[in-house]
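Input:
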Amino acid sequence: MTRISLTVNGKRYERDVAENRTLLRFLREDLGLIGTKEGCGAGECGACTVLFDGLTVNSCMVLAVEADGRAVETIEGEAKDGKLSDLQEAFQKHHAVQCGFCTPGMIMSTRELLHRTPKPTVAEIKEGIEGNFCRCTGYQQIVEAVLDVSGQLEKKGELRHA
Amino acid sequence: MLHGFRYAAPRSRSELLDLLAEHGDHAKVLAGGTDLLVNIRGGNMKPGLVIDVKRVEGYGGLAWDPAEGLSLLPAATINDVLRDKRVRANFPLLAVCAQDLASYQIRNRATVIGNVVNASPCSDMAPALLCLGARAEIASARGSRSVLFSEFFTGVKKTVLAKDEILERIVVPASAAGTKGEYRKLKRINGHDLGIVGVAIARKNGSLRIAVSSAAPTPVLVAGLPGTASVDEAVAAVLAAVSPISDVRCTKEYRLFMIETFVRRLMEEMK
Ligand SMILES: Cc1cc2nc3c(=O)[nH]c(=O)nc-3n(C[C@H](O)[C@H](O)[C@H](O)COP(=O)(O)OP(=O)(O)OC[C@H]3O[C@@H](n4cnc5c(N)ncnc54)[C@H](O)[C@@H]3O)c2cc1C
Ligand code: FES
Ligand code: FES
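Output:
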């Protein structure tokens, strides 16, 4: 066991963790933040995406001990005072959520994208979510949601609905 | 559940080298973890000690020295390379190869050094480093040495590194600045995928270098071609140097066909 201290969604935590515990398991099982999902556990699907010092990472491939002194943000940090975030609302409005399993990871990836590129092109949005698999929506609705929050819904025409 | 191990995050180089000298035979270095943690999870690696190098002082990011060139340090991630303007200006081939590696969030963690030490035949950074004549600066408590990447890979997932050694720095020589380069990687999908084959071409001052991934037990470099080499000469030299196999991704014949196709296309594009 190693003692770690970190912030998650702005809140400070101090915990003893086993060295072989992933950040994903730590968030879900030790902190009870079960919004972050485990799909593949091996970097392929992006369901476990969280922000780690402001950058997206696959939390299934990060050790909890590596998070000592770091700031982590998860899907639970999106809604404030019971009100959904702009991204969450846009996902809802554009039907970018079906089964919802990919959604927490998608939102974290698109959140980071919007931090670094407030008005992303369609190609930049696709690159931003290339590591996030969605088996339901076909992605178009997700791209539309991101175009909408960034005030560029007119670019929707660049998307082809199959 | 990951198999149990101890964890150390040394702050100084001497602490790191001591740890490796003492525990090297059962320790694994951790950089971005995108290969190591997957290997531990899959039961392919069972280290007793995991040594995180990201907190060692002086091991972060990239450094530039006009005389020596570009240094990539142990914590330098693929996205650090992509965000660096000096890389894009001087060594565009590094950026092109980096852009094709895995997905955005993996690139936030995956390091260039981890990629070459992992020594997969399909490494996307190896072709760029081979074409640019980069070298590995290796250190241990016993001393330091310097190895060109053309001598670094010894087999599938094997390198010249001994168990107590650390790859401390990749140096891309200043003399390679301004090299024009392109990389073509064949994947099953447009998104993130490991390569089926990859071909990099670099041209500078009348010299032509071609590197190929996923085409032999190690990444392959074809150096010493004159800048005036014809397309057919380049194809012949590359096909003589590779020895692809058939595997789950595709057949040997398809690999040979696509290597030739990519060499031809890149030679035409980069006349
Ligand atoms: C879903 C997925 C997709 C991927 N796609 C690609 C791809 O398209 N192309 C590609 O090339 N790779 C790909 N990879 C592989 C991987 O992401 C890269 O090889 C990455 O660059 C490894 O870097 P890392 O920092 O994560 O390495 P780690 O996992 O931290 O380390 C890799 C190996 O290097 C050793 N090591 C690390 N640093 C040092 C050092 N300084 N000195 C000595 N030894 C060291 C470790 O002990 C370990 O054996 C993919 C991986 C995943 C999970
Ligand atoms: S659970 Fe982490 S990438 Fe799939
Ligand atoms: S909504 Fe079901 S996986 Fe994306």
